[in-house]
Amino acid sequence: IHCSLLTTGARDRQMLRLLVLHGPNLNLLGTREPSVYGQMSLSDIDKSITRRSGELGIAVQTKQSNSEGELVTWIQNARGHFDGIIINPAAYTHTSIAIRDAIAAVALPTVEVHLSNIHQREEFRHHSFIAGVAIGQIAGFGPTGYLLALEALTVHLGAKRSSSRTRADVRKKPAASRR
Ligand code: DQA
Question: Does this model's pTM top 0.70?
Fold first, then answer.
């Protein structure tokens, strides 16, 4: 599944652009172990992400892949096109040094999301290779986790952007016009 939902106006320089990546087996959401992952399909989750991003005034693109290499390539290609990444790496969370290295390489602020509370489940799900390169992790809130991640990343990037703008203004403005 390759789902492109980039909001119109995304090329607007001011608009934050976030890439939302879903890892393996998440294309089966709705029918896959609903007692663990819920009833909502991935396309419904993506629709709610797009709706919330509209409310937040940000542009979002969502993609899903069952392939580790494809996820690595999408992360690599995000540089210059996106301001941040939200990723549910699914089972690759617990195995993939390649995805971790790709996130570290592009150095884009990244939020890790899990539908289930991985820390409450089997031992092998307790370790995340991604957590060490993410600004934070949201786990256990079901599809709401993606919406919380949108909000968290928007606030994080907004704060970063306004502090760098303030620094640039202070540098550029003549002393008399400084407040
Ligand atoms: C998951 C948790 C992972 O352990 C699992 O392999 C998944 C989904 C989650 O969203 O809860 O596929 O990332």
Answer: yes
Residues 6+ apart with CB under 8 A from 6: 17, 59, 60, 61
Residues marked active site are found at: 37, 114
- Give the Cα separation of 60 and 52 in Å (integer): 10
The Cβ of residue 77 has, within 10 Å, a number of other Cβ atoms equal to: 13
Distance from residue 36's CA to the centre of ligand 1 (Å):
9
**Is any atom of ligand 1 closer than 6 Å to the C-beta of 90?**
yes
Tokens of 38: 């819920």
Average of pLDDT values for 79-91? 98
Segment 153-178 mean pLDDT: 68
Strands (E), 67-148: 84-88, 110-114, 136-139
Quick check: 84 and 45 in contact, CB under 8 A? no
| Residue ID of nearest Cα to ligand 1 atom 1 | 90
The response to whether residue 116 sits with its C-beta less than 6 Å from ligand 1 reads yes
